[in-house]
Amino acid sequence: MGVYNRDIPPAMPLTEIKIKTAKTKDKPYKLSDGEGMFLLVHPNGSKYWRMKYRVLGKEKLLALGIYPEVSLKVARDRCSDAKKLLEKGDDPSHVKKEEKRQAILGAENTFEALARKWHQKNIAKWTPIHGAKILRRLEHNIFPEIGKRPIKEIKPAEVLDAIRKVENRGATELSHRILQNCVAVFRYAIASGFAEYNPAADLQGALDSHKASNYPALTAQAIPDLLKKLQKVETTEQNKIAIKLLLLTFVRQGEMRRAMWEHIDWKAKEWRIPAENTKMRERHIVPLAKQTIALLKELQQLTGYSPYLFPSQNRQKNPIMSENTVNVVLKRMGYKGKMVGHGFRALASTALNEMGFKPDVIERQLAHAERNKVRAAYNRAEYLSERRAMMQHWADFCENPESKRS
């Protein structure tokens, strides 16, 4: 059993006045309050509460706080608590360290803390925009509900209640995406030793079913009418060129928005999209037809001052075109519910397949992931010559939809 130190000579108990008027000396000295507790006064004037005690014959020192942040009364209360621990056979220093460790652990094992660590660990797998969306949806919808809860204590009902609030707003698709993110966070917590089971995994069938829908898209026959409406719509020339470029190249909108002039190889007539700008995180080459080259040169007259093809037109914090710009213009053209920027990919894919181009060539130009890993291993060919011919034919077709494949 431990005992508090009685080696300090008995003295009159300390008072606030005695503590305040204690003068400094060349060396630290002690002002005893009795029964092991004392105030250590340093030459610089700082004053520390300490308690001497013994455990298994070994003398130890317990820090009780700093005066005046810790008053005489509070220091005595802490000293009294330490004596009770000694009477039970516990070491006050060990108990204090364990309480501190648990407090730190408690701050690190909340859902929000683990979710942010999971996000940071996986961020290299995502495009910057996609990674930001994932974190934003958690910050807006989940952290306010269960973010401060220790992750190992969270029950399925708590997760469901949080996600149901999203579902009740009519955001069914978003609620399913959030659930997927929560499942992944709990998996990470289990692998990291902070949780033992995944409460989100039990909710897979608890939400309203969401039927995935394709992006609305026009058919190739509608291209002439689209170009006529684009010519008349009230918007900037930069925005009109953006829509034409999506039609001619059918890249993803994010790839176009983040495109830089340095990615354009005028001599090779190629748009070389770096891996960090693509969904698949692999470099993608877009052969440029003569019509596309002409369009880019027209754009360069407008935005050549910027490193980006499509810089922000509203001096936003983001230096590039807004992700909503193309869809807003398409709605203004009368295509609400009929066509979105991503729809140009489906339009081109359908038309090129009907024209008889090889599916592998089309898929490679679309930069789709190959689901069959064995097939993917043997399908690394760039098909550049075939893709170059296909892209020129597509540009010719868009310019004159009556043309047929030769």
What does this structure look like?
The protein is α+β, with helices and mostly antiparallel strands and 406 residues long. The chain has three domains: 3-100, Integrase, DNA-binding domain (Double Stranded RNA Binding Domain), CATH 3.30.160; 111-203, Orthogonal Bundle (DNA polymerase, domain 1); 220-399, Intergrase catalytic core (hpI Integrase, Chain A, Orthogonal Bundle). It is 47% helix and 10% strand. It contains 17 helices and eight strands. The longest helix is centred in the middle third of the chain and has 20 residues, at 172-191. It is elongated, with a radius of gyration of 34 Å.
Question: Can you give keywords for this protein?
Answer:
406 residues; alpha+beta; Double Stranded RNA Binding Domain; DNA polymerase, domain 1; hpI Integrase, Chain A; 3 domains; five-stranded antiparallel beta sheet; three-stranded antiparallel beta sheet; 17 helices; elongated
